[in-house]
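Why does residue order matter? Because the sequence determines the fold. Keep that principle in mind as you read this record.
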Amino acid sequence: MTITVTEINIYPVKSLGGVSTGACQSTSRGLQNDRRFMLVDERHDFLTQREHPQMATIRTALDGDDLILSSPFEDSIAVPLQPRLLPTRTVKVWSSRVHAHTVSAEADTWLSDYLGVDARLVYMPDTSERRVSADFAQSSEVVSFADGYPVLIASQESLAELNKRIKQAGAATVTMDRFRANIVVQGCAPFAEDTWRNFAIGEAIFRGVKPCTRCQITTTDQATGEVLGPEPLRTLATFRNSSKGVRFGMNLLNTKLGTIRVGDELIQR
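Structure:
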């Protein structure tokens, strides 16, 4: 059975809308431009859809050297994809404290006005290193502002199996964007990704480290920001539970960098 890539997604700003692309470079922190930006509050703590589901409705786009943020009201603002020579502050994402650059006072105002909270946009420069958990790191790998690991993969078959069970329970099915996967594949058994350890996609090689435990963000409609719950968590709990929570998708580390493309074959090593 041939396993092929059907989607590649990056999320330039943690918890905002994503960008689908046909090809992307795998870098030491994850896919290029993935979660290098983040919103923080006045205490410099990270903001996510967990507390502010409306964040899902801010669209992102890449335009040359700029990142474009757009609201449903069709207004937008542009910031450089690689801000330089801006003040640095220490920000918190989960238990990590890392250095990040401020980006734009204008963007802070735009985001705060739309979300109705004090929101400030920050950027992780190359000089800032956030380490992957020592329990799973192989050689001091680093990660962007993603929750814990550089890349997340999931299969269409896993989603189909989940939706079959959701439908049997009489609830509405969910779409893959609820899980915010970087790489989506098809051509395998449901949840086969749990077992993948070392595999190649295009020029890159990845190592599977642990299934991804899921939070309430999966209950939020990524187009409208509406929290619909309790699916898919309710159904996942019936057959995908663990001591750490319900699981969907596989967290990956990058072991060889390179370009990946939609249509590439996943080759286990």
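The radius of gyration is 18 Å.
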